[in-house]
Amino acid sequence: SSEKKLTEENLMSLREVLARLNISKSSWYGGKKRNSRPKPICFGPKTLRWAPQDIEDYARRNHTGHNQPDA
């Protein structure tokens, strides 16, 4: 199978997700779009990770995390 095994190391932490999307933790967990966010993969009671492709897809759908070029 060409499918990569999902491991904690090849997934994104919350800190990485927030940095990629350029949003705060409260924005990630609150707001109207909460239910449209990618579901995390749980590796333990306090260890959540997200698939990078899920985050990229979310960013494209919501136009988040794009740096504005300097004028």
Q: Level of helix content?
A: 25-40%
Question: How many helices does DSSP assign?
Answer: 3
Q: Which band does the percent of strand residues land in? A: 5-15%
* Gyration radius, rounded: 13 Å
Compute the number of strand runs. 2
Oligomer: single chain
Q: Which geometry do the CA atoms define?
A: globular
What order do the helices and strands follow? HHEEH
Catalogue the unreliable spans.
none
Task: List the strand order in the largest sheet.
Answer: 1-2
Average pLDDT: 81
- Report on the biggest sheet: 2 strands, antiparallel
By secondary-structure content and strand pairing, the structural class works out as alpha+beta
End-to-end Cα distance, whole Å, is 47 Å
Spell out the blueprint of helices and strands:
Layout lengths: L13 H8 L3 H5 L11 E4 L2 E3 L2 H11 L9
What does this structure look like?
There is one protein chain. The chain has 3 helices and 2 strands; from the N terminus they run ααββα. The protein has 71 residues and is of the alpha+beta class. The protein is globular. Strand 1 and strand 2 form a beta hairpin. The termini are far apart. The chain has helices spanning 14-21, 25-29, 52-62; strands at 41-44, 47-49. A two-stranded antiparallel sheet has the order 1-2.
